[in-house]
Amino acid sequence: MLSFKLETRPEASRTMSYLSPLIAVALTMLGGLLLFSALGKDPLEGFQVFFLNPLRHWYGVSELLLKAVPLMLIAVGLAIGFRANVWNIGAEGQFILGACGATGVALAMGDSSGPLVLPAMVVAGALGGAAWAAIPAFLRTRFNANEILVSLMLVYVAQLLVSWLVFGPWMDPDGFNFPQSKMFSDSALLPLLVEGTRLNLAFVMALGVLVIGYVFMHNSYLGFKMRVAGEAADAARYAGFSAKRMVWIGLLVGGACAGLAGMAEVAGPMGQLTDKVASGYGFAAIIVAFVGRLNPIGIFFASLLMALLFLGGEQAQLYLSLPASISKVFQGMLLFFLLGSDLFINYRLRVRLTLAKAGD
Amino acid sequence: MSNRRNFIKAASGVAVATALGFGLLGAAQAADPLKVGFVYISPIGDAGWTYQHDQGRLQMEKALGDKVATKYIENVPEGADAERVIRELASSGYNLIYATSFGYMNYVERVAKQFPNVTLMHATGYKTGKNFGNYNARFYEGRYLNGVVAGKMSKSNVLGYVAAFPIPEVVMGINAFARGARSVNPDAEVRVIWVNSWYDPGKEREATLTLISQGADMLTHHTDSTAVVQAAEEKGVNAFSYHSDMSKYGAKAQLSGTTHQWGKFYTDTTQSVLDGTWKPASTWGGIKEGMIEIVPLNSSVPADVKALVDKLEGDMRAGTFHPFAGPVVDQDGKTRVAAGEVISDEDLSHMKYFVEGVASKLRQN
């Protein structure tokens, strides 16, 4: 008879750790084919609509990049913290605060145009996100409060805060009391990279942040210390690395990146602040960070994949009349298969064939 | 097959002429159907805002037959994603698009500018353009009639109102309900609880129970779920549904309600696009235009109340009665509309005060 057994590998498999996301993607696509058949659709047509249709023209590609920008920005910031075992789950709230910071600058500047408006908004966005992340950092380092819970719960506080702002002091006086700020003036909007699309300078910013993130993680002493802190906390302590500092850096960097993404959202496709500014990027980026192996190069591709799942879901609704939740099903499958494949980084499957004894 | 056809059409970006029928008169009127797209904020479900729009879509489809082919996309968030969805419809041959939530406004405007040959209709907003109109309904007319029933039927004289956000549309509904109740019962007062969400069954239920514990025996809501009517049924008090008829969630509790009827409007508007007579406009229709209806009164409502409601409804249909005909006095005693005058649509759409009869205070910004 056959027996299956999971065996601990003597050492975590490097190959498997790179292969795992690819296996997960392949299994997700396979699962997609089965799903389409189960829903009574031609699986190949489903596949084509979901994964290829969004990219059938340049505009679609520009939308994919636009959707991926906040995911890239947030995920790379989170990855720096995650590598040091700092679990910031509240990027969604930091994203909102970044959007609020940038909006504050844009509204304060009014119609005055100037080359400094956008840089000031970038700084305000990053500071807003970092300030929100500083709360769990302080509570963790001062009172040892769990940063997962604190950062997550601050998301709801951030949502109430933005709601108060757009219903209160920042409400557009000509907006019939609807919860929205004034539209930003042109000098407060990120310039478009390609005319006729919505892809803007934030894409270049995101690429820059990915490069900086890569250099920080792989070529800096601080990045090295953070990795040691994550992989071997005892070793880090013996080496005299300050654990508190790791927490602060992990959260502040994650918050600043998420804040930057929030700034890019209001100064990009939205052009104003509304209470609907948060659309789940902060949570989706957590999946992106792990699918991308907490590595900026991987994150780049993972964010494109994640963006494609969003866009594909819209296409599937339009051309296959499938329900809106199809995107979520795909995201769920991706995470599920990733966690499943990740098991084989540290374990391997032993298959044994033993002959059954007579009389059994 | 038709899915594949749609897909190929869209993929190639070419409108393939498909003869769909043979003109009986022999005039070879074999034109493509007009493709009409609907963008919904939430899933359709079986009651509520989006459900009513979808009922309107189906009614329009039925009325216009094979002259139209409709498609809806549900659960489209009111953020930057909305623009892509609306644009996708516009670029794949949908020449008439109804976007049915306020937050789509600026995205509809941008798509309208990029696609001058596509007609875009936006619900509950205030912007228009060359190929961009908006529409809304005078929900407050139904609210007033519901208020009359509530004022007549209440024993405690406390009426509860579960509301989403203090925007004019919600405020005018509360005021109309209060004025209706006070017109027949000067002791009636309306208490409001804000749940700060359009759809949150948990909070809506909690707010309902709080209002009941404060003595409210008549409840209504400006939120999207059936929670208020359900909670009222459970606690043995009465309720007035909003958006949809919710009698199956509260057969005893629901005395009446205010429902949205978009079918006729969608049929007429789509027909005008087919005829080439469509013009950008801001439509604000009520009982007279058939865009608002009240739910038929529960059999427990006495005949004299029903007669009064019927009369008022008839007056509104004839245009001889307005729920905000002066004097309109706010809760601080200030006269907002003088006797003999009627509130203007402009003032109505900016309404930022509660009228007398509303016990709760309005958050001032």
Question: Largest interface, counted with CB-CB under 8 A?
Answer: A-B, 47 and 41 residues
Unreliably modeled segments of chain A: none
pLDDT < 50 runs, ≥5 residues of chain B: 1-30
Q: Tell how many strands the DSSP assignment of chain A holds.
A: 2
**CATH topology (fold) name of the largest domain in chain A:** ABC transporter involved in vitamin B12 uptake, BtuC
Structural class of the secondary elements of chain A?
mainly alpha
CATH evolutionary superfamily of the largest domain in chain B: Response regulator
CATH architecture of the largest domain in chain A: Orthogonal Bundle
Count of spatially separate domains of chain A: 2
Radius of gyration of chain A over all CA atoms, rounded: 23 Å
Keywords (chain B): Signal
Protein name (chain B): BMP family ABC transporter substrate-binding protein
InterPro entries (chain B): ABC-Purine-Binding, Peripla_BP_I, PnrA-like, TAT_signal
Domain ABC transporter substrate-binding protein PnrA-like (chain B): 35-311
